[in-house]
Amino acid sequence: MGYWNDGTEAPGRTYITVTEDDTYLFVSDENVGTISVINLAEAKASHFALKALVGRILVGNGPVAVTLSRDEKYLYSTSLFMDPDTDWPPECQPEWDSQAPRNAQGAIFVVSVATAKTDPAHSVVATVRAGCTPVRLVLSPQGDVAYVSARGENSLLAFDTGKLAIDPTHSLIGKVPTGTNPIGIAVIDNGQKIVVTNSNRFDTGSSANQSLLVIDASRIGSGDAAILGSISAGRLPREMAISSDLHTLFVVNTNSKNLEVIDLRRLPMQLR
Question: Are 107 and 79 in contact (CB under 8 A)?
């Protein structure tokens, strides 16, 4: 159909999400710290002209996730870390460089979708501390919990979405320790369990396989007591997706160059 490009040099566009009515597109521009808002209907009608860009939402360094709330009232985005000129202290050691200066925590940016469609620059309604290097954000089936993988502190965080916009300082429900550098998240068993990839993302010389951690959602506030077990994975398990019948979990093992297929109906037999 065509291509859309606004001329930004190496924006690092990583993830996208589209509104249910297929009219607006949100794109995380990881390298330049913004989320681009594109009128998709206008883009198609104009053969992907530049004018389809509504504007940009300014967020922290390295925006990754762009996840719409179930009612599409809010857009949730994770950013790897906040700027030094904020009042957030430098407390996170970058996992990609043990000698680098510490960064501030990363954040969840809560965006008003209605405002973003007309005035993206003024659409952020809350900024929530989300641990060291938060990357993925996945919602529970009901949309009441947001699960975030904090890659830099080896944790899965859970937030009450009802409080993210109106009471962000009290929105954290719990934190569960994971393996090294968690990235991908999948919510399974009708929201009763969460699967997280222990990616070991920055140990590029490692030939060892990694694992997937299985967590009890009902005990998310109990720390490591919420851990049910693990499933073997390949090297650098990174992305996951669930089949439409909810019976199969697909895992991309990036450095093993394979796709792992897991029968979720047999999951209790596989945990260890």
Answer: yes
